[in-house]
Request: fold
Amino acid sequence: MDSIKIFSPSSVANLSCGFDVLGLCLETIGDEMIIRKSEKPGLRIIKIDGEDLPLSIEKNVAGVAAKSYLNKFPSEIGIEIEIYKKIKAGSGIGSSAASAVGAVYGISELLERNHEKIDLIPFALDGEKLASGEAHADNIAPAMLGGVTLVRDLNSLDIIKLPSPSELVVTIIHPKIELKTSHARAILKKQVPLKSLVKQTANIAGLISGLYSNDYDLISRSLRDEIIEKERSLLIPKYNSLKKSALDIGALGCGISGSGPSIFALSKGHIIANEVASGFKSIISKLDIDFDIYISNINSNGVKKMI
Ligand code: ADP
Reply:
C-alpha cells in the first residue's frame, strides 16, 4: 500500500449543556486527505485544496499532529499529505480537528501500525492546540471515534462513546462571519453561579440518560445551556430568531456549535430536520451574510479509509 485516502468528519462540540466535554460526529461533511509514502524521507504537506491554509508543517494542525505522532513512532519512509478541505476553517464544526485526526489516523493506517483509535487522540490533540491554544478533545474525540462522545478526563484519556439514537438528525447553519475561537473563549465569565451549575449538571445527566434510553423527550428537555450561550450568542447574528424558529418547527434542541458561528439543531427524523433548515434559510437570507446549511445523520464510525 503506497497511499491511502481518508474521510475525516466534521463534528459538533458542546451540545448545549456539555461545554468542553460532549461532541458528536457528522456524516455528510468532512475533509478528504491522501497520505502517501515517499522515497524522500521526512514529512511534507504537498497540497491543500479548498482553503487558504499554510503548507508549513509547524503552522498547519495536520502537520503538527503528524509530526507529534512520528516523533513517538518514527518512520524511515517519507510521508506526503494532500488535504482536500471541505470544512471551512473557523466554522465551528471542527475543521482543525478533522485535519489533525485525519493526518494521525492516515499515517498510522498507511504504515499499518495497528493502533487503537483512542491511542491516537493525544497526537491529534497536539495539532488542535495550534488552532485553539489549549488542548480540547470535544471535536477530536467524536471525529476520531464517531458517535456522541464524552471526555470525562483528558489527561487519562478517559473518553466514553455514548449511544446515538438512530433517528437523531443534525441541521447546521454556518453564517460566514469571522469569529475567532480565542475571542469566543475570552468573553466567557470565569465564575459560574451555583444555581446555573446545578441546572447544567442536571441537563448533562438528563441528556446522557436520554441517549442511553432512546428518550427523545428527555433529550429535548436536556438540550439547554445555562452557562455559555447567553454571552456567546451575542456574537452570532439573529441567533435568538434562528433558535426560536428551530424549536417552533419541532427541533429537540438548538444551540451554538462549538464556539460558533455555526448553530446546530437536533431533530427526530429527516422531515423536521429539513424544515428546520428551511426555517434557518428564510431568516438568514434576509441578512447580507453568505451561509452554508448542512443536514446530517450522526456518523457512528468517525474517521475512516475511503475505497
Ligand atoms: P474550527 O472549530 O472550525 O476548527 P478553529 O478556530 O478551532 O475552528 O480552527 C481554525 C483555525 O485553525 C484557523 O485559524 C486556521 O487557520 C487554523 N488551521 C491551521 N491548520 C488548519 C487545518 N488544516 N484545517 C483547519 N484549520 C487550520
